[in-house]
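Bumping with the actual sequence this time:
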Amino acid sequence: MDSFPHLRWAGAVALAALITSHAQVSAEPSRCDRVLAGLGTKLADATCTESPDLTTANPATTPPNNSIPTLPPFAFTPQTDRDTIAPDPPHRTPITGPVPGVQINGRMADDPQGQARILIRMPDNWNGRLVVAGAPGTRSEFNGDFAWSDYVVQKGYAYVAQNKGVLNFTISNAADPLACRLNPSSPVFVHFFDNDPGQPFTRWAIFMAEAARLGQSALRIQHGRLPRYVYAVGTSNGGYQVRRAVESYPQLFDGGVDWEGTFVDADMPNLLSTLPPAILNFPDYAASGFNPASTAARNILAAGYPPDLVNTQTSPPTSFWQTHYLQFWEVTMCQWQKRLDPSYDTYGAGLGNYIYVNRLSRSDVGKNLADFRTSGRIHRPLVTVVGTMDALLPIDTNARAYARRVAEAAHDDGDKAPAYRLYEIQNGNHIETFKLQFPQLEFIQPHALQAFDLLVGAVEHHTKLPPSQCIPRGGRIEGSPAQPGHCRSLLVP
C-alpha cells in the first residue's frame, strides 16, 4: 500500500524537470559555438578554445612550429616568432595568474591568397577595450605573445593579431628566381611567401584594419557590445602597420604605439637606400680587424648606422654589426628588392652595389614604394618608441625620418593634428636578445609597455602625453624629462 502517493508524484515531477532542464542546458551552444557561428563565413579553418589561461604560462596558448599540416616547414613558426622581438625569459612580462577566456585561431576567409591568419583572445574579465597587434618581418599572428599579449590580457584587454596576410618562408634553392640566401656565406636559400604574385606590401595595412573589424565582431557576439576603445600596437614592420592604422583607418583605431616601425617612402632615406652601403662595406671592415677608423667603418656610419660594438670576450671576437650582416642586412635587402625591384640581378650585380637613385629610371621601384608609403598625416594619437642603437632600421633614417614627416603634416594641419611623441631609448636596439651578447644595449619592451599605458591615459582620461625625449639608461619616460628631444649620442657607456 502506498502511504505517500503525493510525495512520489512530486518527486517524479521534480526528476522530470531536472532531466528536461539538463537536456536544455546541454542543447545550448557553447561560447565558442556562438562566436564561430556569428562570425560565419568571415573565418576559415577556425578553431576555438575555452581556455583556462590566455597567457603564455599555458603551453597551449601558442601552438608549436609547423603545426599546420597543410603548410610546408617554416611557413608557420609561432614559437620562434614570439621569441624574436621579446627579451630573454627573465626580463619578460611577469605572469601573476591565469586569465581564462576564449581563444580563436584561423584564416581570414576572403583573402584570395589564402594566407591571411588571425588570432583572437577574449578574456572573461574583459575591460571593454581591444588591442590589435601588427607583425614584424614575415612573422605569424603569434609574434607578440611575449611582447604584447601577456601584458594586455592580464589587464583585461581583448587581443587580436594578424600576419600581414602572408606566411613566413619555405626552403628553396639558388635556381629559384625569388629565393634569398639566409646570409652571405650560407648555401641555404629560402623563398619568402611575400615575394609571390598577389602579395604586394600594400596588403599589410589592409589586414591590420580587417583584424580590428573581426575583433570587434567577435567581441560583440561574445559580450554583446563593441569595444569602447581600440588600440594598435606593433614592432618593426608591425610598427609600420600601426602608423598606417592611425593614418588611414581612424574610424577603427583610437591611438597606437609604434615600436621601431619601418619608414617607407619613395624619397630617400628608405630601406633600399640605406642597406646597400652596410652590405657593401662590412667585409672590408671585418678584414680590417673591426677597425673603427677604417674607411669601411666610416662608410657604414655615414649611411646612418649606429657605432659598432665588439665583444672581445669571445674567440674570435664578435661584432654587433657582424650579427646584423649575417642575420638581417642582406636577407632583408633581398626580400624587399625581390618584391619592389624584381628586375635587378640580386646576386650577379650584388646587393651591396644596389644604388636606389639609379634604379628609379630603370624600374618601378619608386612607384612600388610610394604605393605603401607612410604619409605622416596621423588622425589619432601615436607614440613611437625606438632605440638609438637600432642597426637594422637606424634611428636617423627611420624613426626620426617619420617624426619629421609627422611634424610636416602637423604644421599643415595646425591645431587639428593629434598628439605625436617620439621616445628614444638610449642604447636600445632592434633585437632585444642581442643584449645577451652586448650588455651595453638596453631593452625597449619596458618602455613600449609604459608608452602604451600613457597612451591609454591620454585617450581615455585626457592626460597629457609626456614630451618627446631621450630615455637614459635605466630611466623611464618622464613628464619633465632631463633630456627632451633627441638623444645627443647614439651610444653611451
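The C-alpha cells above came from a reply further down the thread. The first helix runs from residue 5 to 27.
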